[in-house]
Amino acid sequence: MAADIRSAARALLSWYVEAGVDEAILASPVNRLRPAAKPAQAPSPRPAAPPPANRAPAAPVPRPAAAVPRAPQAELDRPAEAARVAARTAGSLDELKQVLEGFEGCGLKVTATNTVFADGVAGADVMVIGEAPGADEDRQGKPFVGVSGQLLDRMLASIGLSRAESVYITNILPWRPPGNRQPTPAEIATCIPFVERHIELAAPKLLMFAGGTSAKSLMGRKEGITRLRGTWMDWPLPNSGGTIPALATYHPAYLLRTPGQKASAWKDLLALRRRLDEVVKAV
Ligand code: URA
Hints:
Layout: H1 2-18, H2 73-88, H3 93-102, H4 108-111, E1 119-120, E2 126-130, H5 135-140, H6 147-157, E3 167-171, H7 185-202, E4 206-210, H8 212-219, H9 225-228, E5 233-236, E6 243-249, H10 252-257, H11 262-282
Parallel strand pairs: 2-3, 2-4, 4-6
Antiparallel strand pairs: 1-3, 5-6
Uracil is lined by residues 130-134, 137, 143-144, 146, 148-149, 171, 253.
């Protein structure tokens, strides 16, 4: 009997590992069978209430964690519209953080430990936009604090910049996709209005997109990062008609896996430094 239970437990754990579950992120169990967050709930500036503590954990139901649903465009647009309305209510970065923490229109929030908003100097001349929090960022509630964040810090330092003094950092997604899977188009579409408002409110002079997800989703482009990197683009401010110069480069996590591309990333960093010097001189 005990052997049966052990073998069933081993089988369940193996299934979790195969499905991409690579860590237990909470100290206490969460009932994942609770009715899911309503996709297009009206925005609320207040943080969401914590889940009831006295509910018994339900038995886990096997679900393929890495399935990427493809929704019709109208389905993609509904939570995105709620996000757009919510994001517009924020008149400052602090308000935007609160609005985001209270937003229930993105399912990623259910499995995330923290809403990862930003790090660095709000109002800095350079704003870096990555893809999504990983496990370290989810735990600490700050973007780019894991190994790829350490490389990002070294990249910035190589051109005299740092998050302590001169750079503001955020991501396209404020919540970690479970198992670090690729975010779906619907998740990106829902989060983009918050990033757009984030850029508007932070008002950087230059944008640096770290990786293809960031560059493609903010520029509405289909090309891969190899094509998009290294050429200045104009990111259109959604409400003012103005633009902000934006440069895409390789994501630090990609550079860790593919160090041969560091030479190209170095060229991008030098281009960023040159443009920053011009912009600062012109003021
Ligand atoms: N990768 C990202 O794109 N963002 C982070 O915050 C961490 C890793």
